[in-house]
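Entries read chain and fold; for instance:
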Amino acid sequence: MAKGKFSVAILFPVAAIVQRISGIYFYALGSVVLILIVLMQKGWDQVSGVLHSLALPLLFVDMLYGGSSFYLTLTRNQRNSIPLLLIVVVPLVALFLLFAYFDFGLAFAD
């Protein structure tokens, strides 16, 4: 590979690794959130702060897992491409920033 050139061939293994790692975190955080929801239903109101603090990390991991799975599905039978990666990543980043604003920005808008 020439100096200064970016290889698109490295995107596929990285996307597969990101999908596997984010999948582990997705199932772990999702299980913790479901357990906390059940505990809140049983009357343990003190877990509401933990549940609220796990909302954005769970959303981030969900979007990372879903985006990497979607990208791997789209590039299964063809070459990897930067424009396709941008088509998947840009809307996910915009949605995450919007939800982060809803979570943090609107809480202080009183």
